[in-house]
Write a structure and sequence with these properties.
With about 700 residues, the chain is an alpha+beta fold. The protein is built from 18 helices and 33 strands. α7 packs parallel to α8, α13 packs antiparallel against α15 and α16 packs across α17.
């Protein structure tokens, strides 16, 4: 099941949200609510043999799955035979079966197939199952000794009871329990079940949405608060056991370091850290001091912390970001109240995670509206949203697909008058060139730029058309042609920034079912077995003819990105996907597009910090900058793939060993941790100073 991989945040839990399979009668329909509005439903039936059939469909931002699933249940609640058909989030084919019979487990899917001896009490986790199966899977694990069950590939699933509540709805009162299913992915899956012998599914909740039976639409806030408390307790414990304090004076000795402003390698030098900041960068052994701890930098490279400039961050994402050397991110649209709370927790050190800079999302009201940020009914509401974000200190507005084209110019004018920049998707029925001329300072996603050359005025890009049309037609865009040159010249003239997020489209436009996801193939062997298996499932399941066109179109996107850089159009490195690993791939794709590795590293450090308005505090190895640094066993200016060889990540007054963070997430480490040598008698005073 690709729950957390495909749908992090709200959509992730939607796959889990509607499970309801038990012997007792149950509600036939559950409501899927986003921002309080109905976005989908789950309908369930059971035939005379007891086989369960579930139909599940929802829509958000013009996307969503349509699946029909059926399965039978044996002793100890174990699902024994299963089938699912339908379409996934991006329209890919969902087609999978498995069965436990005659002592064998047999399965087949678009990604793989297997036939092996069944494990006693074992369970199976499909690639893209419906939420009904997730709830049944939880009940099956709870029924096993120790609430633990084995799955193929060596996976062990564990069920944990986290919290209990009493909730009151319009139709009655319910006692409910929050359970976590651990071991399926790097994050536990959470479900609220009824607190009785049936363990009937009751609700699933995340930021901005809720799935409950009719009559309990009002209970979301109470469930969300308690669930987040439980999740925070888990993440706080991980932070407490992995954060390595750097009190007093720290010396990183004889290290090569990347001068991000000049995009050049310097050193070897001694780099001193004090009170969470870089206090000195000197020739080796040039300063007499008594550091409280030493870190050997010989043979290693010190970089400024990386920035991911396009994320939608959740609490557990912080660990993945830090493990990959990402010490700062730009969130490009979230549930605002929840994001502010999360930012405070990261900044205070309560949870491990990057520094967050936020863009204020504004979306227009339509049946395709994205849930999140502020959804405006009209232009006056959109202008009021600009004022609200400005008053809260935001530096940027992000516009989305359902903003009306005629709103863009007045929104941009209001934002610019208040010192804010404007970025985002190109609204439907508008082209990128028109958006730039109307006031956009930044364009996000390479597909939004490519649409500029072939989208027609009546084509609605709020649907999957914004992907399929690009897959069909981007191959005809010649980066050296006159149309491309004119567009690129406009971007250069206006200083328009581009955030291409190449890695998030790589699998979409180049992967065939049964082949590994190219964006994550290099790290696949380190991933949990269920995640690793899901990498062989294509998001869009293109036909052979489609795949030929799509791959040619993706190659065109790479060429266009390289042309943007050569022309002097500023780029930012963002992902809009899997934290950490996808940024490493994004930077590798820039090198593949013809951008030299040192320039790529400058894009992901100094250029990003300046674009976020934080160049005076972050983004370079320089006295006075915050100590947000990455120690690499290798030289990524020569081989960008060395960014995976992280031995230490420093964030202010603490360091993290990526190997430890990955271990806490069930991911195999890439590089041993650098040793922090503590002084026998800790002192941060200069030699010869009086005590």
């Amino acid at each position: 099941m690709r729950v957390l991989l495909l749908f992090r945040g709200a959509a992730a839990a939607l796959w889990l949200a509607c499970g309801l399979v038990q012997a007792q009668p149950a509600a036939a329909e559950f409501l899927v609510l986003m921002q309080g509005q109905k976005a989908g439903a789950r309908n369930m039936s059971r035939d005379e043999s007891g086989r369960v059939t579930v139909a599940f469909s929802w829509r958000d931002n013009g996307r969503g799955p349509d699946i029909t699933e059926s399965f039978s249940v044996g002793e100890q609640q174990r699902p024994l035979a299963y089938q699912v058909r339908g379409k996934s989030l991006f329209g890919g084919t969902v087609n999978e079966d498995f069965s436990f019979a005659d002592g064998r487990l047999r399965w087949q899917s678009p990604a793989d197939r297997g036939d092996e001896p069944s494990l006693e009490g074992g369970v199976f986790v499909p690639l893209e199952s419906s939420p009904a199966y997730a709830a049944q899977l939880l009940r099956a694990v709870l029924a096993q000794p120790g609430a633990m069950a084995k799955a193929p590939g060596g996976a062990v699933l564990r069920a944990e009871r986290l919290a209990a509540l009493q909730v009151q709805g319009r139709t009655g009162r319910a006692a409910v329990v929050l359970y976590a299913l651990v071991g399926a992915e790097i994050e536990p899956w959470t479900l609220w079940l009824r607190d009785d012998d049936s363990r009937e599914f009751f609700a699933s909740v995340e930021r901005g949405w809720l799935v409950v039976p009719p009559g309990f639409e009002n209970v979301g806030p109470a469930l969300l608060e308690r669930q987040q408390q439980a999740q925070t307790e888990r993440l706080r414990a991980i932070r407490e056991r992995t954060a390595l304090p750097l009190p007093g004076l720290t010396l990183i000795r004889r290290v090569r370091w990347f001068d991000a402003r000049a995009a050049l390698m310097r050193g070897p030098s001694d780099v001193y850290l004090f009170d969470g900041r870089i206090s000195a960068v000197t020739p080796p052994d040039a300063v007499r001091a008594n550091p409280d701890q030493r870190i050997d930098g010989q043979g290693r490279t010190l970089l400024p912390g990386l920035w991911d400039m396009h994320v939608h961050v959740g609490p557990a994402d912080g660990l993945m970001h830090l493990a990959a050397g990402v010490t700062a991110v730009r969130d490009m649209g979230a549930q605002n109240q929840e994001l502010w709370k999360l930012k405070a927790r990261f900044d205070s050190g309560e949870l491990a995670g990057p520094h967050i800079v936020a863009a204020g999302l504004i979306e227009g009201r339509s049946r395709y509206s994205l849930s999140g940020g502020i959804v405006a009914e009209n232009l006056d509401a959109a202008l009021a949203a600009v004022d609200s974000y400005s008053a809260r200190g935001y530096r940027q507005i992000k516009l989305y697909n359902s903003v009306r084209p005629e709103w863009v110019r007045p929104i941009a004018a209001r934002a610019h008058a208040k010192g804010l920049t404007v970025a985002g998707h190109v609204p439907a029925f508008m082209r990128a060139e028109q958006a730039v001329r109307a006031g956009y300072d930044e364009l996000t996603h390479i597909n939004q730029l490519m649409l500029n050359f072939f989208v027609k005025p009546d084509q609605d890009t709020r649907t999957l058309l914004r992907f399929t049309l690009v897959g069909d037609s981007a191959r005809f865009v010649d980066a050296r042609g006159e149309a491309a040159k004119r567009f690129i010249a406009l971007l250069r003239e206006r200083g328009t920034v581009v955030d291409p997020t190449l890695a998030t489209f790589e699998a979409m436009f180049s992967q065939r079912d049964g082949e590994p996801n190219p964006a994550l193939a290099a790290v696949a062997e380190h991933l949990p077995v269920l995640w690793r298996r899901s990498l062989y499932r294509s998001e869009m399941s293109p036909s052979p003819d489609d795949l030929t066109r799509y791959r040619a179109s993706y190659a065109s996107m790479l060429r266009f990105t390289g042309a943007l850089h050569r022309a002097g159009v500023p780029l930012l490195a963002g992902t809009d996907g899997t934290p950490g690993f996808l940024l490493q791939r994004e930077l590798a794709l820039y090198v593949q597009a013809g951008i030299p590795a040192p320039e790529v590293l400058r894009i992901a450090t100094w250029n990003a910090a300046r674009a976020a308005g934080e160049g005076d505090r972050r983004g370079s190895v320089q006295r006075g900058q915050r100590a947000e640094l990455v120690l690499v066993d290798g030289d990524p200016t020569r081989d960008i793939a060395d960014l995976r060889k992280l031995s230490l990540v420093i964030q202010g007054r603490h360091a993290y060993a990526p190997a430890q963070l990955y271990e806490a997430l069930g991911i195999g480490p890439f590089t041993p941790a650098a040793t922090i040598e503590r002084a026998a008698a800790s002192s941060s005073r200069p030699e010869g100073a009086s005590p």
